[in-house]
Amino acid sequence: MRDEIIAAIPNLRAFAISLSGNVDRADDLVQETLLRAFANINSFRTGTNLPAWLFTILRNLFRSEYRKRRREVPDSDGAFAATLTTNPDQNTHLDFEDFRTALDKLPSDQREALVLVGASGFSYEEAAEICQCAVGTIKSRVNRARKRLGELLAIEDAGDFGPDKTTQAIMTASDRL
After folding, report:
1. DSSP code, position 119
2. Whole-number Cα distances in Å, 22 to 16, 28, 32, 150
3. Who has the most CB within 10 Å: 74, 125, 128, 176?
4. pLDDT tens profile 81-110
5. What pLDDT, on the 0 to 100 scale, is given for residue 142?
6. Which residue range or ranges hold the RNA polymerase sigma-70 region domain (predicted)?
7. What secondary structure letter does DSSP report for 84?
């Protein structure tokens, strides 16, 4: 059987080259074919056509890999992969939890006004109507709520929003690559 397998290698290689059109790829296919054949030698029935069995393994390997590669994006230099970066979301999750904790610490009237105007998008007038109070009262509550949230979250200016300094440094460094 060993001699039959060795004798089939040149024909397997020629068949692989005809399928793939690439000598290196063909050699890989033949190697993988032989590995699979040896791994599954117990499924070969003695007395049947060994070269035909090997050619079937090679053809099936080629077809499986062709289907996989058809879905892949050619990116030999990694340019496309470099564009597929995302900011880590761990910090965002933690920031959101900090925000929720701080929001819960606000007095209920301020929290209600802030949620109506800031999160739900109601105008001051609409929020005043919902809360059944004066527009000036809603404006005051929203202002105090924003100021207190800033204190609780240690926000001093707009530069405190967005990724932290470490994440910004990593993103800047990856942009240069």
Report:
1. I
2. 8, 10, 15, 63
3. 128
4. 777 766 666 667 787 888 889 889 999 899
5. 94
6. 10-71
7. -
